[in-house]
Amino acid sequence: MNRGGFPAGVSQPVQYGERARGFAVYLNQYQLIPYQRVTEMFEDLFGQPINQGILLNALETSYDNLESTENRIKSEILNSPCVHFDETGLYRGSERAWLHSTSTEKFTYYTRNEAMQAWMMLVSFRTTKEYMTTGNLTTHMRTVLTPFAMLIISGN
Predict the structure, then answer these.
(1) Which helix (H) or strand (E) holds 87?
(2) What is the pLDDT of residues 103-129, one digit of tens each?
(3) Which of 58, 60, 94, 122 is the most exposed place for a label (fewest CB within 10 A)?
(4) CB 28 within 8 A of CB 38
(5) Contact 68, 82 (CB under 8 A)
(6) Are 87 and 76 within 8 A, CB to CB?
(7) Please, which residues have CB within 8 angstroms of residue 137's CB and are 6 or more apart in sequence?
């Protein structure tokens, strides 16, 4: 009798591989397809059901694996001479919520309303620290407020 081994990363007789879990995460996070519809889609396309618990575990694994990427994005934004802040409103049920973005020409970081205050304080602290160190705003950064967005622009 010939017997093959399982592919790398497969530890159970029945489980979804990395590509299937990655595809489920892609559908949910990038294409914004709700959990229930992703599970229905797997059944319709592949004839194989996937439960929401598997999708939630795959999302958690992806979140953990992207921590270093998130830290790099934050670092690049904090060290950029030009940073743009913006927000958009959306509804969770009947409750109004805000999604904030902080971006440079190459990097974008999104956060919920609750986390935005801490993030803006960190960027503002960096600006204030540079001013206090040199006392010269013309060679560093200044903050410009508009009704719709906060934009930190180069003082040059």
Answers:
(1) strand 83-92
(2) 888 998 888 765 665 566 566 545 444
(3) 94
(4) yes
(5) no
(6) no
(7) 131, 155
Please report the pLDDT score of residue 3 as a whole number.
77
Residue 91 in contact with residue 64, Cβ under 8 Å? no
For residue 120 the two structure tokens come to 């803006």
85, 150 Cβ separation under 8 angstroms: yes
> Residues 69, 72, 74, 80: what is their CA dihedral angle, to the nearest 10 degrees?
-140
Is residue 71 within a helix (H) or strand (E), and if so which, with residue range?
helix 67-78
**Averaged in consecutive runs of 10 residues, what is the pLDDT profile of the chain (156 residues)?**
73 76 92 93 91 91 91 86 81 84 86 64 51 40 34 36
Sorted by sequence, the CB contacts under 8 Å of residue 106 that are 6+ apart come out as 76
Rg value, the chain, Cα: 22
Q: How far is residue 132's CA from residue 42's CA, in Å, rounded to a whole number?
A: 57
| Helix ranges restricted to H, 32-66 | 35-46, 52-65
Ranges of each domain in the chain: 18-65, 71-154
pLDDT of residue 117: 59
Kindly report the pTM of this predicted structure.
Answer: 0.59
